[in-house]
Amino acid sequence: MSLTELPRLISKRRQATTASAHAKDRQPSEIELKLIHDARLVFGDRMREMLLQNEELDVLWDTLWQSASMGSDEARKMTFLDFQNIKSQLPPKFHRFFKASIFLKFVPDESGCIAVLQFFNYVLRKVSLMQARLDLSFYDGDNDGMLMEPELNQYVTDLIPSLKLESLNTSVYPYYICSSVRKFFFFMDPHKRGKIAIQKILLSPILTELFELREPELPEDYERTNWFSAYSALKIYGQYLSLDTNQNGLISRAEMSKFNSGTMTDVYLDRLFDERQTGKGQLDYRTFVDLVLAIENPQATEAITYQFKLLDVKGQGYLDDFTVGYLFKSVVEKMVTFGHEPVHVADVVNEVFDMANPKASDRITLDDLLKCGVGGTITTILTDCRGFWAYDNRESLEAR
């Protein structure tokens, strides 16, 4: 048998796969990392050159307003011929916004016209998204299209000077950054992978909420409802400081019993420390922020998922009637300490099962809670005596 007739023990395909695996495992050299870094900078600069600057957006608005032939002075509209004419008046940098496919994105009126203001706002959103994509990509150290928590921390850190946070002392910045980044990860990293796709961040209302703080004049109600405002950050930070009575930077089980005016049940707090404590049997600020997010957004899928893990005291993946009764018994005990009359536990257990409408009559799964539409109400009833009181008195509260 000649050498050419010897059987091939390793195919070319396997050799290629093996080589690919070795290439994947190999760490890039310092020169390669520098080359990748420089290439990204060059690409980012070229993409930024394509962005419309404020002066160019002013030019676009003036051209749209002057050249649109339809509508009133208060609400200009343009035909497709206007659209093409405006394109011809503008430099090539603007042309990507003047494609027929973009015109067709808008619902025309009976004359086939689209609103100038609506089109201009579309361009503004596109420019803002492209700018945000470039900014976020700059922090993507391994260039995988995703940001890890330290990378998003740095992004928010660098963003702070452009946000309306005058009332926030620089000493609070680390806590502000933590609470800001945790909102992204609480809602956008449900599987706890430790990273979030940049595309997902860009499409998220959370990023829009953060960018609201770039507005020079923010209404007072926005200050109170926007998670990223100085008001909200100081509120959370103040709660944490008031709980940390020994000033060691962590919250103990005894200190946590004072949270929310002391209305959270002992069983729930025990479970919180069993599952979420971060060292020395205590909670750090990062973990505390996650809890606040779960409590303030009770009906959110992520909050219900967070709470379900704590309510599942037996770790069996569902809540049976014993578990629900055990949880609510702790609610009753807390109610009595506040001077309320005790409630019959069995009645509430039946009501909880009716609310959850579980697929299996003897157990409530996470899926049941997510589908029933009142999952957040159920988790609140079983963890906080004030939450149960509000539910039990909902009709009289609504009548006020």
Could you give a short description of this structure?
By secondary structure, this protein is mainly alpha-helical.
Spatial shape? globular
Note poorly predicted spans.
6-10
How are strands sequenced across the largest beta sheet? 1-2-3
Q: Look at the helices and sheets and give the structural class.
A: mainly alpha
Terminal residue distance: 97 Å
Percent helix range: 55-70%
| N-to-C order of helices and strands | HHHEEHHEHEHHEHHHHHHHHEHHEHHHH
Strand content: under 5%
Rounded mean pLDDT is 87
Largest sheet: 3 strands, antiparallel
| Number of contiguous helices | 22
Give Rg in angstroms: 28 Å
- Count the strands? 7
Question: What would you note in describing this structure?
Answer:
By secondary structure, the chain is mostly helical. It contains 22 helices and 7 strands. Strand 1 (70-71) and strand 2 form a beta hairpin. It is globular.
Main features:
mainly alpha, 400 residues, 7 strands, single chain, two-stranded antiparallel ribbon
List the helices and strands and how they pair.
Blueprint: H1 12-25, H2 30-50, H3 54-67, E1 70-71, E2 76-78, H4 80-89, H5 100-103, E3 114-115, H6 116-138, E4 146-148, H7 149-159, H8 173-188, E5 195-197, H9 198-202, H10 205-211, H11 220-225, H12 230-243, H13 253-256, H14 266-276, H15 285-296, H16 301-311, E6 318-320, H17 321-337, H18 345-356, E7 363-365, H19 366-372, H20 375-381, H21 385-392, H22 394-399
Antiparallel strand pairs: 1-2, 2-3, 4-5, 6-7
